[in-house]
Amino acid sequence: MHAQSGRVTGYSESGTTRLTADAKTSTSTSEPKTDADVVRVPTDLVTVPVRITSPGGKPVPNVRRDEFKIFENGVEQQLAYFSNDEQPFTVVLLLDMSYSSVFRLEDIQLAARIFVAKLREHDRVMVVSFDEKPHVLCEATNDRRILGLAIGGAAIASGTSLYDTLDMLLRDKLPTISGRRAIVLLSDGVDTSSDKATAQLIEKQFGAEDVIVYPIVFDTFDDVQKNRRNNAQVLFDENDRPYIAPSPPKKGEREQDYQEAREFLKTVSDQTGGSVYRVSNTTNLNDAFTKIADELRRVYSLGYYPSEDRKSGATYDIKVRVYRPDLKITARNHYLGK
Fold first, then answer.
1. How does strand 180-187 pair with strand 212-218?
2. Mapping DSSP to helix (H, G, I), strand (E, B) and coil, where does residue 146 land?
């Protein structure tokens, strides 16, 4: 809690609360607009989207600039940019249309329409589906009719090139989008057919971006196993008795594939300041999209110029603190030197 004398009784960082005393902080209650508040910034500014929630999970909208501290590799950095305005956002709605999603197609399309219905006037969505390759169904727009047609045009096909699709977005699409950006991914996360990108490459690329990733995960493992059993070959032994001859599981059908998918989705959401939502029905989906839409409008934007020269390809850890106790802070936790 922030005392009027400037004494701080606690601070929060990256989801934890720590107790301190006699920290020197400003007691100003308003933050005038300055040139630093303009989004037109040089490319060497490191930007950090930050979400702050109460113990009950509600966004905390009134944290002031002087309550934030930001550290790189343990060294405090001077805050050069701050914004807490409720700004429009652009979301890439990424729909898994691989064969494993055939069991969830109607749920996925309904969920996508639910999300579009939660948009405000200036929020925009780009709809992209993927199977063995990505398909841009519509560029970023806030036109509900176009978005509805794009979602309805998503179709099931073979292959799952999740990593190649994310690579395309990171290289070609996201650099053309300004303002607050996020990827909302509806998928089981299992990649079966990418031939250009790997999980490690995508994790590294996200380290250089300030886009937030929200995976919404359908667990299709049981559906896939049931389908394998239904399609098992029936053979006959020497006594003409039938028996089932299941084929060995292919890539994308094994438990280890699903474990790798879970680890990948958690890694990219953690490092970008997002959250993983595991859903099983449309009620869960509606709740997830409501939370995501609300969070995106309440993201704080921080920025700093690194105090030391950057090494291309090197990883720099980021820690954001807020001098109030009992807050959960979700923020980008590192970035990649360019």
1. parallel
2. helix
For 331, list phi and psi in degrees, rounded to 5: -150, 160
Q: Domains plus CATH for the chain? A: 11-28+42-84+299-336 (no CATH), 89-219+254-296 (3.40.50.410)
Estimate the share of the chain in helix, then strand, then coil, as percent rounded to the nearest 5: 30, 30, 40
- Residues with Cβ within 8 Å of 155's Cβ and at least 6 positions away in sequence, in order, are 97, 129
Q: How many CB atoms lie within 10 A of CB 192?
A: 19
Would you put residue 319 in left (φ > 0), alpha (ψ -120 to 50) or beta?
A: beta
Q: Which of 46, 319, 332, 305 is nearest to 206 (CA)?
A: 332
Per-residue model confidence as pLDDT tens digits over 196-229: 999 999 998 998 788 999 999 887 766 666 665 6
Quick one: angle between helices 144-152 and 105-117, nearest 10?
170
Nearest to 234 by CA among 245, 250, 223: 245
- Token look-up 């720590």 returns 18
Strand 124-130 to 134-141 pairing:
antiparallel
CB 59 within 8 A of CB 290: no
